[in-house]
Every structure is written in C-alpha cells, then in structure tokens.
Amino acid sequence: MRRYILQRLWQGLILLVLVTTIVFFLGRLTGNPADMMLPEDATAEDREDLIQKLGLDGPLSEQFFLFIGRAVQGDLGDSIRYRQPAVDTFFSRLPNTLLMVPGAMLLAIVMAIPLGVLSALYRGSLVDRVSGAIAVLGIATPNFWLGILLIFVFSVKLGWLPSARMGGVAHYVLPTITLGTFLVAGFMRLIRSSMLEILDSEFVKLARIKGLSEATVVWKHCLRNALIPVLTLWGVFMGGLVTGAIVTETVFAWPGIGRLTYEAVIFRDYPLLEAVIIMDAVLILFINLVVDILYAYVDPRIRLAD
Amino acid sequence: MRNMPWTSLGIIAAMLFMAVFAPVLTDHSPIDQSLAKKLLPPVWEEGGSTKYLLGTDIFGRDVLTRLFYGARVSMIVTAMALLVGGGVGLLLGIVSGYVGGRVDTLLMRLVDAALAFPTILFALLLAVTMGQGLRTIVIAISLLLWARFARVVRGEVLAVKQRDFIALARVHGCSPARIMMVHVLPNVLNTFMVLLTLHVGVVIVAEASLSFLGAGVPPPTPSWGLMVAEGRGKISSAWWLSIIPGIAITLVVLAFNLFGDWLRDRLDPKLRQL
After folding, report:
1. Is there a contact between A242 and B120 if contact means CB atoms under 8 Å apart?
2. Structurally, how many domains does chain B consist of?
3. What is the pTM of this model?
4. What gap in Å lies between CA A203 and CA B22, rounded to an integer?
5. Average pLDDT over residues A237-250
C-alpha cells in the first residue's frame, strides 16, 4: 500500500512539473511577459524596471529555475488586476467553488445511479429510452447555454430564483443544476453499461441461485461493482468538473476559482492565469491522489496488482 | 438504408448548406452595424419585421445572418481541428501501438496526462499568450483531441499487429515505416472515421465554450458561442440573442452525435464502450 501511494505521488509530481514547464514556456516563447503585465500607457522605463524586477532579462534557463524556485515557495507572481499575490487571490476564491461543487456532485449521483441502474435492469423499456434521451440531450447541450436558459425560464420569466451572485440557499439552485447536469449524462451512461456487464456475470447468477432477493442482488452485489468504473474514470470527470465550474461560475457571476479563471482571461491578467492553472493542477492532483488511495482501499485488486 | 438517422442527416445537411451558401441566403452583412435597427424581436413577436426573421442584436445586425456565417466558422474550426488533432492522434496511436516498448509507455503516459488535465486551461492560456484567432483555437482544440484519438487507435493497432499479413510483410523485408503506412493505417481507418464523427460535437461545443469565455474567434466575426455570450447581458429584454444560437448549437451537436452513434454501430461496433 505504501509503495502504491508513493508511486502515485511520484506520478503526480511529474505531471505537476510538466504543467508548470508548459505554462512557463508558453508565456515566454510568445513574447516578453512584461508586455502582457504592463498597462497600455506604460513607458519604456516602466518596462525596463519590471523586466529587471522579474528577472526577465536573464537567459531562459535561468528564468525557468527562478520561476520554479519561487513557485516551490508558493510565489507565483502578483495579479495585475487585484494587485496582490496571485496565490492569495486563488485561495480567497476557492471556498466559494468548494461550496457549490458538493451539491452538483450530489445531484449527479442522486440522478445518475437510479436512472443508470433502472435502465440497465429494464433494457429497452420506457425508463431506458427516456434516460437515454436525457443523456444524449445532456451531452449535446453546452453548459453555458443551459445556465442562460435556466436563468431565462426561472429568473426572468417565472421570477422564482435569483440569477446571479452568491446569497441564500436559493442562489445555489440554478448553478448546482447547471454544473450537475454536466456530470449526470456521463455518470448515467457509465453506470448503465457496467451494470449490464455485471448483471450478466457468474457471481450474480450464483447470488440469484442462492435465493437472495432481487433487491439485494441488484443494489448490493451489482451496484457496488458497477461503481468501480465510475471511480476509475474519476480523473476524466475531474477535468469536466473544472471546465464546468469555469463556465457555470461565469454564467452565474459566482465568485469562485472558475470565475477567477475567466476574469484572468478577459482582463489578460497573465500572472493570475498562470497561477490559477498551476494551482488547479495541484488541486486536481491532490484530489486524484485521495481518490486513488480510497480506490485501492475499496478494491484490493488495485493495490495487489501494483 | 433502413434505420438511417434521417433527421440527423437533415440537420447536418441544413447546417452545411447554411455554411456554404451564407452569402447567397441573405442580403444582410453579418458584421456591419446599423444602430437604428438594434434589438428588433423575431418576426413572430410584437414589433418584429419580416426583413429580420430572427430579430437583430445590440448592434442592429441580423441574427439569422450571423447564424449562417456562424455555421461557417463552426465548420471551418471543426474541419481544421479534426484534421490537426485527429491526424496527430492517428499517427501517434499507430506509432505507439506498432513500435511498442518504451515509445509506447512514454506516449501512453503523455496521453494519460493529457486526459487527466483539463485542456480548457491550456486553451485559455494559449488565447492569452498567442492572441485570439483561428490558429489559436485550432491548436487549443487539437490539444483536447489528440489524446483521445491516440488511445483508441493504439488499441486497434495492437490487434491489427497480431494478424498474419503484418508478419508476412515483415518477412518480406518491409520497413516498419512502410508497414505502418501501407498495412496498418488502412486497417484502422474505419475506427478513425467513427472517431471523427463522434468528435464533431465535441469540437463544436469546445469552440462555442471558448468563444463564450472570450478566448475563441474574436468579435465581430460571428461564432455561435460568441453570439450566446453577447446576448447574455440582455437575457431579460432580448431573449432571442442568447437562446436562438444555443438552440442551433444543441441541434447540430445532437445530430452529429446521433449520426456518429449510428456510424459506429455500422462500421465498428467494438467502439460501443466510448
């Protein structure tokens, strides 16, 4: 188990170095970052000062190690727009995103598990076809537009729910649905296909022959195993979640890290964008590591195979 | 021809028609502003005009015209991104699967890394560093595609590699490069075609999302995602600005996905798991 965790940590570290390297070189190869950081009315002198200050006049390799050295100490430069360390800005926004994500995940799970299981059990039935249609539509509808559509129906037309910013419980409803549907379709399809496979397996036949009730067979024996692929594809879903958060928070003016990413793009706040990407990578790797460990704990086959 | 997804094909054909014949289908300019005619509602709403069937936007541009030209942008971006991203994925998948060994391990690790990290972040970074434009968006979306293509193609190649005609070619003295191009490539083309169709929707949504986030095709070029973004602030007074292009995106993506599913079942049912 310890070897497994160490191996995962090592892999994560390599990925992090890769991301940091790409972020660094993308910024440097396409021009001097100083030009992106300066306001439009800056003088040549201001430019020189900034280049000196950031060490941008040295050779690229020297700059790279300077950048890495600072990054390790938690210094990823200052945000131009917010005039404070970009990492601090990131952490001040993070809690708002973390407040929204659990609701969306819960919604996805609550919808996807019953629908996925039922459509596998009653293949070709009305439930299967309806949930299939939901999945197909869910995948085809771009999330940013779904959010706007929800605002139009529930805020503008019906006036039931607030359309933007944080606030009481009502403020959570639309963003949660928008972000949640991003995950539902994928979850549902996955659970359906792995349920179909498992319902056909030997141990399920045995459980039935043993005379266990259908409910026990389905919800205990099958579902547990069907959830394993969901965990396996967790990494892919994490990527989707980050993308979904950027779009959802932008639509609902939600002051989290997704909205911060959008602001960094719109205001061309390059150091902030750099920091957000690297911090996102750290966050994703950390969560993936935790999931991997849980995964090995739940399914002994994983840790024994390594 | 039975079970052909006719509705999907119809929508796809309509979109291609709109994209190709945009200048013929409309007299209006997709870019020129005329503020006197701004924010006219669609024809069926009160105050609508038959000259502007789907209304006009905040700059007085005809929404339907921008929809036509937006289809063009979507199609160009899709074709180029699939060509670049899909092509790179195809080549790397073949090399990875055929050569095997360390090359395979390294490439597949890269694929894992690319799939684990949300590529939208790199796309946004590219837009900021390289500037917005067609080139940036094609590179950004290719980054998203190549890993998915490479992984599936590699799997196919591993199976093809075991076949007798490959061994025969090798005995015959063919170079690995020739075997890959002449013997392996044609046998994974079916899979490649299915992957291409299944990813059209992915690319359209990616382009629209990037444009929505201000990192796609720069204004005033009409892109469906950009149209949704521009209409967002006016949702309470001029719903058609955001809602109509969104419907267009959803319909087209839906059509391509259903068509892709059908093609997969016809050509390569093994890919069901995708």
Report:
1. yes
2. 1
3. 0.86
4. 59
5. 86
